[in-house]
Amino acid sequence: MALNAMVAVYAERKVSAFMMDRIGPMGQGPGLHAGKWGLLQTVADAIKLLIKEDTIPQKSDKFLFKMAPFIIFIGAFLGLAAVPFSSSLQVADFNVGVFYIIAVGSIGVIGIIMAGWSSNNKWSLYGAMRSAAQIISYEIPAGLSIIVPIMMAGTMNLQTMIQFQSGSIWGILPNWIIFNNPFTLLAFFIFFISAVAET
Question: Is the terminal CB of the chain with fewer CB neighbours within 10 Å at N or C?
Fold first, then answer.
């Protein structure tokens, strides 16, 4: 899980840097380097995060303030339960797996609002509301773009969707939904842009 997170964060940073026409993670301070091509940047960030002081505002609701980060991560980890890593490696095989992942992925918004509310500071609450509104606004086009592969496969069960994509097109391209017609490719780009903008 940690290695997956490291690779995903590194790839996201490099893709974001490419989109913003900059180099991306390469070094960590003057004279310090995060490994070749910035591969150790995520490790450096994790060490920095663990060293940071844990401060809690005096007038805050301490229980909610401490629970907010857990609520944010719960949605991400609950979503992994429906992901079929192989035909036999899946925690739960839901008939509405796609809907489940979208639903539990939205739990993070509640954690963000909790963090802003519990700090007992109006500016923190404004920031949390703005962040939640931004996340929700990007989840709408992402959710609508997921309708296209659901209609193509005729199911919301992730295991069945994977089986639908087995084989190849003309013996050259994999039979992924994205290659079936131009609308699926358009839906993919809408989802990709929404997912990158949401992070």
Answer: N
Token pair recorded at residue 51: 């060293």
Structure confidence by residue, pLDDT tens digits, 38-61: 677 777 788 888 898 878 888 888
Give residue limits of the domains in the chain: 1-52, 57-198
Token digits of residue 150: 């659901």
**Does the pTM exceed 0.85?**
no
**Structural tokens at position 147:** 């309708």
The Cα–Cα gap between 136 and 73 comes to 17
Structure tokens at 186: 């358009």
How far is it, in rounded angstroms, from Cα 135 to Cα 106? Answer: 9
Give the integer Cα–Cα distance in Å for 196 and 14: 12
